[in-house]
Amino acid sequence: MRERKQKRILEESSSSSESQDYDSSYSDPDYVAGTSYQRSSRKNFNINPCINNPNQATEVGSSRRNNGVVATRRRRTLRRRPGASNKSKRGVFSKKRTILSWMIDLGIIFEDMRVWYIRDKEKIIEGTIKRGGVRCNCCHKVITVYGFEEHANEGHVKEPYAHIYLVDWGCHLLGWIYYKGLLRPEELARCEFNLVEPRKDASDLNDDACMICADGGDLICCEKCPSTFHPDCMGMKKIPQGEWQCPFCICKFCDHLDSINSPRQPSSPDSPTKFCGKSCEEVFSEIQEKHLGVRKELADGYTWSLVQMKLNPDPHSNGEFLHEITIGNSKVSVAWTVMEEIFMPVIDRYTGINITQSVIYNRESNLRRVNFRGFYTAILERNDEFISVASIRVHGTKFAEMPFIGTRERFRGRRMLQKLLAQIESALRMLNVENLVIPSVPELVPMWMNKYGFTHIESNLMTELIKYNTLMFPSAVRLHKSLVTHAAASAGLSLFS
């Protein structure tokens, strides 16, 4: 048992200054984010971005110790960005968020660039690039890239980015997205392994935040890994004597040492995925093999999809798979710009890690509390424009967690969050997941309970939660929604319908 004094909590007014939230003084004196490095290098796809003509077409204040003195720091809490206060901000929030607009904002492509749709080395139709899609020369309307493909009578192909050709630059759009968008140094840095190392003068090697509630205080330390816990969060009536090992180092099923949950190192391309149980493996396989990256159409032009950053695609994979991975990774990047627009930066006060970004990019870490491997991003779109975004991680069939969900300002008040949440819940039910768990800021608890049917977490579920690595924020309130209720009514739905 060791002492981490609780700091005095000071109220903080909302501020639009991002620099305050990146204040590096809010860090653990014993831990420091080490030199980040890529989990693995991206392999070259079988896509050539630069060809000369279509005939060559291929493709998230801590207590600080200073000589025993506890310094008071302000607590950083999860909050949304304040509403737009001036014309320039309104302009940013009102911009369309699509893959094409993301590329335009990066300066990778430009509006009014000429494009062709090419199939079997033959130009079928022409158009020009716009933020919201392609302006088709045959109907003079701005339509989605998928609509452009349909205008070419190739709607059955469903690989528009692979067949849209940038005339002036002599390359296909899919390859240009990959090489010029996804391989940018800034983008690669967001995918790096979060390496957290003890400082050379560290008094101990354990984390300074509870794995369950993410706050400091009096913590019990695991003897096998850096994880620490509040005894109350663990439901302990007395402090165990002798060496103690946390739930992550003991198998949930047999109480033996669990090598599956040992501290991680960066995954190599050939590292097998490890699971804590059969149900976790089955759910993972179901999502990965059948539903990840699938663009599901809803009524009135809406679509939704589940994506995840993939770093190691097989360069020998077929064109359909490469199209799916490239567009899926691009959607993750656009989803990050949406999250930046919705939320103020959420920075872990002990390690300095950007939690929101790490969740969106499902970044791994050797420090279990900030290991966000396994997160998926759910996206609601209309005509390819991003509307709402959510982060989800599924822990077998017992529960799934959703730490972030939000709707862009210009679409709020139109029940868009309900629309995305309904699809997520339906999908989880079809995967036989029993509960959806969220961390809510206290002031929004009534909204989640009265409007969306969430309730305070039950003791039996909390007993299960402490066995898993779930994302929590200081002062947040855990809520859950049972997905078993009304499951029969959803039995006739397809998984991601």
Automatic annotation (TrEMBL):
Disordered, as annotated region: 1-69
Lineage: Eukaryota, Viridiplantae, Streptophyta, Embryophyta, Tracheophyta
Cellular component GO terms held in the UniProt record: nucleus
Keyword Transport recorded: no
GO biological process: regulation of transcription by RNA polymerase II
Annotated PHD-type domain residues: 207-252
Basic and acidic residues: compositionally biased ranges: 1-11
Organism: Citrus clementina (Clementine)
Polar residues bias spans: 56-66
Residue stretches of biased makeup (Low complexity): 12-31, 44-55
Protein name (database record): PHD-type domain-containing protein
Record keywords: Metal-binding, Nucleus, Zinc, Zinc-finger
Gene3D superfamilies, per database record: Zinc/RING finger domain, C3HC4 (zinc finger)
Location within or outside the cell: Nucleus
Molecular-function annotations in GO: transcription corepressor activity; zinc ion binding
Pfam families, per the entry: IDM1_C, PHD, TDBD
